[in-house]
Design goal:
The two termini are 28 Å apart. The protein has helices at residues 3-13, 18-25, 29-36, 44-54, 58-61, 66-85, 89-105, 112-133. Helix 2 crosses helix 3 (29-36) and helix 6 (66-85) packs across helix 8 (112-133). The protein is elongated, with a radius of gyration of 20 Å. The longest helix is centred in the last third of the chain and has 22 residues, at 112-133. By secondary structure, the chain is mainly alpha-helical. Helices cover 75% and strands 0% of the residues. It is built from 8 helices and no strands.
Length: 134
């Protein structure tokens, strides 16, 4: 089933007109029509919003579109990396000290909490860098 068909079926299940869905997504009714007819694809932000409106996982929206799934993963990785890169050095130091203090208070976890944070941060940035190189 195409993405357009999936959007159409879920829109009908929620008893929404194209105009009502368009208003919720802040796009035109024609955009919804183009998506449902597979002329164009929604942006990754709109796909995320559609999954929220339809109350289904993003994977269900993209189940037969492997290229869109991969694009969604790339966009999400880049978005995560931008979040981590948005902090200044001063903010990073303050946040790290806070995590260490929390870790000390939550013994036996100790320094595990800040270490997990830094691992997640570096993996996110590395993954985004790999996607951006492609």
């Amino acid at each position: 089933m195409s993405l357009g068909t999936t959007i159409y079926k879920n829109r009908k299940q929620k008893h929404l007109s194209q105009s009502q869905l368009a208003n919720q997504l802040h796009v035109s009714r024609q955009a919804i029509s183009n998506w449902e007819n597979d002329r164009f694809f929604p942006s990754m932000d709109n796909i995320f919003e559609l999954s929220t409106i339809f109350d289904i996982p993003v994977a269900n929206l993209l189940e037969d579109n492997t290229s869109l799934k991969e694009d969604f993963k790339k966009q999400q990785a880049i978005k995560d990396a931008k979040f981590f890169k948005s902090f200044t050095k001063k903010e990073e130091i303050i946040f790290s000290i806070t995590l260490i203090l929390i870790g000390v208070k939550l013994s036996p976890l100790g320094l595990v909490i800040p270490i997990i944070y830094w691992i997640i941060k570096f993996k996110s940035i590395k993954k985004a860098y790999q996607y951006e190189k492609e």
